[in-house]
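Weekly sync, protein design subgroup
Attendees: M.S., D.O., the rotation student, P.L. (late)

Item 1: inverse folding check
M.S. brought a backbone from last month's batch and wanted to see whether the design step gives back something sensible before we order anything. D.O. pointed out we never logged the input encoding, so this time it goes straight into the notes. Structure tokens as presented (357 positions):
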């Protein structure tokens, strides 16, 4: 009764045994009368193969109709196909409210995000388990807590050993030797950089890792030298990330002590920042052609439009269409069509200037 695309529920072929989804849309004659129906079938194996490369352990990706019935799920669970997992109103609310914690049909607590597919009556839902999402944060927190506790132990040990100076000059000398050896051993065993500075930010104590993780020459990280970090001298709970000349990234946290001294903890976060950059890049690229996707295009276009308005300049948007592309897929198969898309993407990229998108 309408011109909307109808998405059928998954069905298993009686002969092939393969799961497919039927799509259909009515066709009207020139005079507006009913002329027939165009129908097509999608093989669920394609979605399962593609989604299996994206799902984290314990997570899932689902495609649902607007009425909440399940069309595709990875990991595959054939018993769930076609069932109503959620109401249509609840789907729309999840799109509006953004990612949130929910309990899945398997009883596992996950962080779930839902998006509506433009111009189609379907939704895509993706989830990760809480353990997977918070794993890096928990690991970093454990290391920071361990480093802070160890730093406090080092300070307490130093204070106790220094109090032994009251036992006389001979005992004092022996105690200082003991302090030096113990401090060197303890600070060398810490994976993080530890620096203790006085009220004037002059170094009182620093381990070897502090020089390496701050990019400071070892001879400038000795007692009496001023501590110079790109993160500045201000102490507080904020963590600043600095980039070293060799490309590594270091998180710097500075905490003020009651006696006026400051404890600076340096942690190597190169791998973590690289993982964040990779996730950001994946979110902005089409997985087949590695060209910017719609989200990246809209951001680039907005910046370019603002630049043109500021400088009263000109810009161009070229819309490229591949003629008879469906014939390539129908004649030679979708894999050949994918090769064609990647080849054209490489060709277009080579023809652009570095300032173009």
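Designed sequence read out in the meeting:
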């Amino acid at each position: 009764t309408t011109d909307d695309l109808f998405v059928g529920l998954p069905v298993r072929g009686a002969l092939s045994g393969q799961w497919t989804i039927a799509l259909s849309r009515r066709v009207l004659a020139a005079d507006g009368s009913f002329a027939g129906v165009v129908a097509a079938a999608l093989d669920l194996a394609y979605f399962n193969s593609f989604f299996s490369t994206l799902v984290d352990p314990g997570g899932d990706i689902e495609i649902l109709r607007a009425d909440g019935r399940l069309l595709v799920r990875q990991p595959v669970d054939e018993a769930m196909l076609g069932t109503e997992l959620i109401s249509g109103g609840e789907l729309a609310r999840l799109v509006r409210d953004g990612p949130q914690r929910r309990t899945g049909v398997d009883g596992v607590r996950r962080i779930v995000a839902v998006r509506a597919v433009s111009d189609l009556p379907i939704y895509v839902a993706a989830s990760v388990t809480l353990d997977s999402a918070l794993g890096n944060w928990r690991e970093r927190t454990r290391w920071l807590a361990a480093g802070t506790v160890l730093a406090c132990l080092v300070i307490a040990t130093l204070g106790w050993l220094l109090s032994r100076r009251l036992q006389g000059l001979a005992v004092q000398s022996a105690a200082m030797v003991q302090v030096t050896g113990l401090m060197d051993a303890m600070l060398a065993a810490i994976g993080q950089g530890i620096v203790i500075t006085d009220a004037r930010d002059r170094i009182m104590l620093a381990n070897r890792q502090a020089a390496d993780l701050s990019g400071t020459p070892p001879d400038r990280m000795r007692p009496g030298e001023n501590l110079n970090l790109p993160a500045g001298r201000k102490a507080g709970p904020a963590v600043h990330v600095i980039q070293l000349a060799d490309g590594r990234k270091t998180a710097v946290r500075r905490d003020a002590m009651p006696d006026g001294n400051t404890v600076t903890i340096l942690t190597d976060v190169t791998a973590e920042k690289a993982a964040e950059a990779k996730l950001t890049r994946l979110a902005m690229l089409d997985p087949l052609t590695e060209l910017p996707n719609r989200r990246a295009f809209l951001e680039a276009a907005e910046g370019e439009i603002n630049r043109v308005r500021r400088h009263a300049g000109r810009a161009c948007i070229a819309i490229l269409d591949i003629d008879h592309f469906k014939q390539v897929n129908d004649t030679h198969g979708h894999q050949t069509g994918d090769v064609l898309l990647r080849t054209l993407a490489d060709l277009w990229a080579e023809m652009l200037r570095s300032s173009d998108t």
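Discussion: The chain is about 40% helix and 25% strand. Residues 26 and 37 are 4 Å apart (CA to CA).
Action: P.L. to compare against the previous round before Friday.
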